Amino acid sequence: MAGIPKKWRYPILRVIWKYVYERKGNIVIGITGQPNTGKSWTGNKICYESMGPKSTVDDFLCFDVENVIQKTFAYVKYKNKPITMNMINEIENIPKWLKENMQFITFRPGRAILFDEAGVGAYVREFWSKVNKVLSKLLQIWRFLEMIIVVVVPGDMSLAEKTISRFLSMEIIMVGVNLADGHAKCIGYEHIGWNKKKKEPIRRRIKGCKHRGFIRVKAMGKERADEYKAAMFMSKLGAMMGLAQEFKITKEINIGRTKNVWDDVKYLQENPKQFKNKRDKWDISLIQVHLQVGYHKALQIKRCLQQKEAEKIIDISA
User: Fold this and answer.
1) Residue 286 confidence (pLDDT)
2) How confident is the model at residue 100 (pLDDT cuts 50, 70, 90)?
3) Any idea of the CA torsion for 137, 55, 152, 88, to the nearest 10 degrees?
4) CA quadruple 159, 160, 163, 169: dihedral sign
5) CA dist 272 to 7, 64, 195, 286, 308, Å?
6) What is the CATH number of the domain that holds 39?
7) Residue 180 and residue 78 in one domain
8) Whether residues 78 and 172 fall in one domain
9) Contact 37, 184 (CB under 8 A)
């Protein structure tokens, strides 16, 4: 205990300190529980406490796979500025660029990401089915960056893909909220292994809630609570608006969901103004928004489109 700074001596934060600062790795925390038991409250509090008073909800809150990837990169600094997806897209040869710019790339341990399902439980399994495709790579970069990953899941972890249970370091089960004294109650378990026969994690209660005891999580101040509430509202509204767009696109043109990427390329060629930026360049963000596809699908569409355009130029010059 003597070597741990005072702010990290609380039960949950003590475990985070051990994984991130003592072991120089990452920690993946799952928060589960029924509605109105303090899941979002606790996840938000963990990230604020870990990252410090200067952090804002926009620094760590994520609601989709692309957002998780973007925020992960944003914690890596190139010449003291966050790496962005636009910056990455402009790099022609990534290994060469990394070799030439290694001395300019830095990061700080203990940066956090919070994936909160925002009450839309139907998206949780879909989220993890997408993340599982890149999960091993994400875990490697999270471990290298010594990050804190918090996942909020309604009910219990069975709603998330089973694979994620293999990577959890700590599970926090919310019991309820006492509004009178401004505390949420929870039980914290550290995952210390994997039971191959039962195909489930081996858990032990963390210090602070043993012998059937509970951890008390104090509420945030009003300003930060209001900030988080506003962000949650926008996420829910955004999710519903995205559903409306997806329904229209799927019903009318079925673009972005086709098995053949060339159908999407043809659609872009027929409607270029919708997908080009002010510099008359194909814009991945616009492709994502208007076709309702993920970043990697949008990048594939753009590259195939550029290939088509290059072939056309060659034909003309021939």
Assistant:
1) 84
2) very high
3) -30
4) negative
5) 54, 27, 54, 11, 14
6) 3.40.50
7) yes
8) yes
9) yes
Q: Decide if 247 is inside a domain.
A: no
Asked if 146 and 16 sit in the same domain, the reply is yes
pLDDT score of 124 more than 60: no
In this prediction, residue 119 carries a pLDDT of 39
Its domain, for residue 28, covers 6-234
Residue 177 exposure: Cα atoms within 13 Å on the Cβ side: 14
pTM of the shown model: 0.69
Rounded Cα–Cα distance for residues 58 and 52 (Å): 14
On whether both 55 and 191 belong to a single domain, the answer is yes
| Residue 157 pLDDT > 80 | no
Gyration radius from the chain CA atoms: 22
Ranges assigned E (strand) in the chain: 27-33, 61-62, 76-78, 81-82, 105-107, 112-116, 148-154, 170-178, 183-195, 200-205, 215-218
Mean pLDDT of 11-17: 92
CA distances from 233 to 226, 230, 316 (A): 11, 5, 52
Q: Distances from the Cα of 145 to the Cαs of 35, 113, 267, 270, in angstroms?
A: 32, 12, 40, 43
CA distance to 47, 128, 168, per residue, from 27 (Å): 12, 17, 8
